[in-house]
Amino acid sequence: xxxxxxxxxxxxxxxxxxxxxxxxxxxxxxxxxxxxxxxxxxxxxxxxxxxxxxxxxxxxxxxxxxxxxxxxxxxxxxxxxxxxxxxxxxxxxxxxxxxxxxxxxxxxxxxxxxxxxxxxxxxxxxxxxxxxxxxxxxxxxxxxxxxxxxxxxxxxxxxxxxxxxxxxxxxxxxxxxxxxxxxxxxxxxxxxxxxxxxxxxxxxxxxxxxxxxxxxxxxxxxxxxxxxxxxxxxxxxxxxxxxxxxxxxxxxxxxxxxxxxxxxxxxxxxxxxxxxxxxxxxxxxxxxxxxxxxxxxxxxxxxxxxxxxxxxxxxxxxxxxxxxxxxxxxxxxxxxxxxxxxxxxxxxxxxxxxxxxxxxxxxxxxxxxxxxxxxx
Length: 376
Prior knowledge:
There is one protein chain. This protein has helices spanning 19-30, 59-72, 82-98, 105-124, 167-170, 184-193, 215-223, and strands spanning 10-14, 34-41, 76-80, 129-131, 136-140, 146-150, 173-174, 228-231, 237-241, 268-273, 278-282, 289-299, 309-314, 321-329, 333-342, 350-355, 358-370. With 376 residues, the chain is α/β, with parallel strands linked by helices. A six-stranded antiparallel β-barrel has the order 12-15-14-13-16-17. The chain is globular and about 65 Å long. Keywords: ATP-binding, Cytoplasm, Disulfide bond, Nucleotide-binding, RNA-binding, Transferase, tRNA processing, tRNA-binding. InterPro entries: MnmA-like, MnmA-like_C, MnmA-like_central, MnmA-like_central_sf, Rossmann-like_a/b/a_fold. It is an enzyme of class 2 (transferase). Its EC number is 2.8.1.13.
């Protein structure tokens, strides 16, 4: 959101109640923008409180956000988007696990809530931009196009979960923390200097709508239990489970098989079949993925040129980069080959492509291809 001559913008600052969003709002106000704070009430139980450092969007977080807005000296409102959040994020999360896929609710929230429902409402009310505490950078090119780039500090970079933003959304996005070469401790020190009570507040972890961190328990309450088999690659029955949705590709712990493999090595979840409620396990090398197909591509700014091209890819919010060749087929399907095999790749996850620090775009993994293994 920069021009040759900086102008005063009407900015809606999404304030979660945490330190990052509070400092982002403070920086936007200090830069001279007309800032209004808003806390999104996303919980279906607005009277709930945080459990330790988990979760967000509770009544306690709303109070913390309001106190921060008072200190900054900006107007503050609470907007109830709980129904939209349940439909677009929570219900989608449950349906994806039920189908044997592994979703990322943070990407879905950014796509459907913060930069769709919230942004649409902000623009309708005359705001120019939505400001969040994400660590990423929007760059305005000389030709007027906008690009999403990694944060200056790779240790805090959050561009992966923003890889779903399109050109229109980037045009109205503001990330005041993205170009800050500081540690999280220094962000907290800045918050303390500004008199923000949230300076020492713990970060939220895991999935915000599962406050206790028990994803399997959360799913069991909504999907029920359904006993099925745990089998090896040859189909031999090794044990049972209470619902295939409770597993993820690459999982090692909690398999409860009861006896070791013949070679004495650990076994990992290789496949989840919701059709017959079966979980297949095997050795770690069976997780090696050499290629994948992804659907529903979204481009952060200009789309890539036609034909295969080399990029780096990130497969998890806190994962590293790996070199890939990607080709967009008929505009709807992304075919990706890895220079070196990668592990723990599951349908439903997002793959985000990068050209240097620039986020090219993202897509949802539909299928994977694994490296053929020699017979023992």
